[in-house]
């Protein structure tokens, strides 16, 4: 890896560290009023960071970050007012209190959003409603908590500023020192979040943003990860709110206003969605433009400036400032995606595959059967799965065939838990999983490849395999060893560093199949795996499926009759959601009734 590539990889650490040092150095020269105003930009940057975690990384546009910010601000400030009289210091109590309250309120709202499985639009609207609700309630909410007096519309005043030391020795800091403290707190929060998002947690969050269903099919508990990310972001917002209280010495309900809520996404978009550091860049750019051109920190022209900045952004810099810089930098780096075009034909070595499958059995236990009893699924008037009772065991592969719309994919999805059946049952290795979530079935050993290849396009080929292997092993080194083995078995070593989105459809099919193998599945469901493959590749796939079926229960949905023939397995014909015929492919091919349903005739049906 070249020096430029190494620097690019660590840019999210190196440049923010340099920016922190620059801000600290600037504190020595800027005038106190600018330091005072710039502190608010740093606080808004923290708020933007909180949104970028859930939106840029998690994929959910939350308009509730100002709610957690406001709640953290109020709660932290109430704690500050009371603790300052006891200890002489306030910030060291208010910051953790604000962060904890922000995290808790985010966890509560997140629980409703994620466990009710809300769609992204619903979640955005709910988070916005939550902010409006707080805005409305806080207007008339009056309460005395110890020395703190929350006075509805009048807000909460008398919030202690930033002091150093304790008791009578505590000294209030001036605007420049407060700026330094704010920069240090923001830097600490940024590097912590950055560390979290660079690790396995962040990788899973990225996968969820790209394809939540696939992430769950790999065995990751998507809702828990989403909830944890939302709570972390709530903590960052609450921290920002408590810092704001100490900076302004005053908080009122405008903190929950529509204008505040809409500013945060703008900071993130201007800086660069998903970059984390961009939130600070956006807040500083917007803040500085308002300050220098718009008539002061909260100048009257701020809205006009925001409008112009947004229009320019949409027209010229869709990925924000950092996004644009990143794109320019990437142009100078070696193009690993070029390797996607070096298509060597796949050659599955049955001995190597056998070794991998034996090892998988060693790790995951013996193959499991799959059984459905009277499985029934309907969509309005369409019944794609109509009381299907079948049992599948390891040994020979099973093929499900039938004309378009026969219900083959729906049956697999009902087995995988993607569709919840209205009646009947699904058993994996004798365990009833009918009501179990997708992730639970994955943990029972089910590996699923849906009709359309599902790969994480923004991740490299090797990382896609690693994510699957890690889900099963929860051990980084073991996951690396397994993913390398499967990569080499698929003959895709040269594509290891290629982004999955750059692969051809056929290569994505192989990668998706590779990911399923990384799971060491005990039951495998493959929906049209041969689609988009060359004839040679289809032959290799046949070798793979036949070998796999000796170590796990393997069920394949396929239209390619020649492929089905080479599988030499048991064939089930589905028609209108029901099992129509069964047997081996030669007999079924000669069956006039089967021909009729394919040709849409009624002669023998
Ligand atoms: N999520 C859904 N909502 C509504 N209808 C659905 C849904 N999924 C499947 N269907 C309907 O169920 C029927 C069976 O579809 P399914 O995709 O299972 O058939 P298939 O045999 O796999 O077809 P193909 O070979 O074309 O993929 C179709 O009429 C389809 O429109």
Automatic annotation (TrEMBL):
Membrane topology: Multi-pass membrane protein
UniProt xrefs under PROSITE patterns: ABC_TRANSPORTER_2
Keyword Nucleus attributed: no
Membrane-crossing residue ranges in chain numbering: 37-55, 67-85, 91-114, 121-138, 178-197, 227-247, 267-292, 304-325
Protein name in the entry: ATP-binding cassette domain-containing protein
Subcellular location: Cell membrane
CDD domains, per the entry: TM_PBP1_LivM_like (cd06581)
UniProt KW Cytoplasm keyword: no
Organism annotation: Mesorhizobium dulcispinae
Entry keyword set: ATP-binding, Cell membrane, Membrane, Nucleotide-binding, Transmembrane, Transmembrane helix, Transport
Domain of life: Bacteria
Any Pfam family the entry gives: ABC_tran
Molecular function terms, GO-annotated: ATP binding
């Amino acid at each position: 890896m070249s020096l430029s590539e190494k620097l690019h990889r660590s840019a999210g650490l190196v440049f923010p560290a340099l920016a922190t040092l620059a801000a600290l150095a600037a504190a020595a020269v800027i005038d106190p009023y600018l330091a005072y105003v710039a502190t608010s930009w740093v606080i808004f940057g923290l708020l933007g960071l909180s949104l970028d975690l859930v939106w840029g990384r998690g994929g959910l546009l939350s308009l509730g970050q100002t709610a957690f910010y406001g709640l953290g601000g109020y709660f932290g400030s109430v704690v500050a007012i009371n603790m300052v009289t006891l200890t002489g210091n306030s910030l060291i109590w208010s910051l953790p209190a604000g962060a904890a309250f922000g995290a808790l309120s985010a966890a509560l709202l997140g629980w409703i959003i994620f466990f009710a499985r809300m769609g992204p639009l619903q979640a955005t609207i709910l988070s916005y409603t939550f902010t409006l609700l707080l805005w409305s309630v806080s207007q008339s909410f009056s309460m005395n908590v110890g020395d703190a007096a929350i006075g509805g519309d009048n807000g909460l005043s008398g919030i202690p500023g930033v002091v150093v030391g304790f008791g009578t020795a505590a000294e209030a800091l001036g605007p420049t020192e407060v700026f330094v403290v704010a920069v240090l707190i923001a830097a600490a929060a940024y590097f912590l979040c950055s560390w979290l998002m660079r690790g396995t947690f962040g990788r899973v969050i990225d996968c969820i943003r790209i394809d939540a269903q696939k992430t769950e099919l790999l065995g990751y508990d998507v809702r828990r990860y989403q909830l944890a990310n939302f709570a972390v972001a709530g903590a960052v917002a609450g921290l920002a709110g408590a810092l704001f209280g100490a900076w302004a010495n005053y908080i009122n309900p405008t903190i929950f206003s529509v204008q505040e809520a809409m500013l945060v996404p703008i900071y993130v978009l201007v800086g660069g969605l998903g970059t984390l550091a961009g939130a600070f860049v956006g807040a500083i750019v917007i803040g500085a433009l308002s300050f220098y051109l718009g008539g002061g920190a909260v100048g009257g022209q701020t809205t006009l400036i925001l409008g112009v900045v947004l229009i320019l952004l949409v027209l010229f810099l869709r990925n924000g400032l950092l996004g644009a810089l990143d794109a320019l930098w990437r142009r100078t780096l070696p193009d690993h995606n070029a390797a996607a075009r070096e298509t060597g034909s796949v050659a599955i070595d049955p001995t190597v595959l056998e070794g991998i499958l034996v090892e998988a059995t060693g790790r995951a236990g013996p193959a499991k059967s799959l059984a459905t009893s009277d499985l029934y699924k309907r969509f309005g008037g369409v019944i794609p799965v109509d009381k299907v009772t079948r049992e599948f065991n390891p040994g020979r592969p099973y093929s499900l065939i039938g004309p378009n719309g026969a219900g083959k994919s729906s049956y697999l999805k009902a087995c995988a838990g993607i569709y919840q059946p209205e009646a009947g049952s699904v058993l994996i290795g004798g365990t009833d999983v009918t009501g179990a979530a997708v992730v639970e079935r994955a943990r029972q050993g089910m590996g699923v490849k849906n009709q359309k290849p599902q790969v994480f396009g923004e991740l490299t080929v090797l990382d896609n395999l690693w994510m699957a292997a890690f889900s099963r092993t929860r051990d980084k080194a073991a996951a690396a060893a397994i993913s390398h083995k499967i990569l080499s078995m698929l003959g895709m070593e040269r594509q290891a560093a290629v982004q999955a989105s750059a692969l051809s459809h056929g290569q994505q099919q192989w990668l998706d199949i590779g990911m399923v193998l990384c799971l060491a599945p005990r039951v495998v469901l493959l929906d049209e795996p041969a689609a988009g493959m060359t004839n040679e590749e289809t032959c290799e796939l046949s070798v793979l499926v036949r070998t796999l079926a000796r170590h796990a229960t393997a069920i394949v949905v396929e239209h390619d009759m020649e492929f089905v023939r080479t599988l030499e397995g048991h064939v089930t014909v589905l028609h209108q959601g029901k099992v129509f015929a069964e047997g081996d492919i030669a007999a079924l091919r000669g069956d006039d009734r089967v021909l009729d349903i394919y040709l849409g005739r009624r002669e023998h049906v």
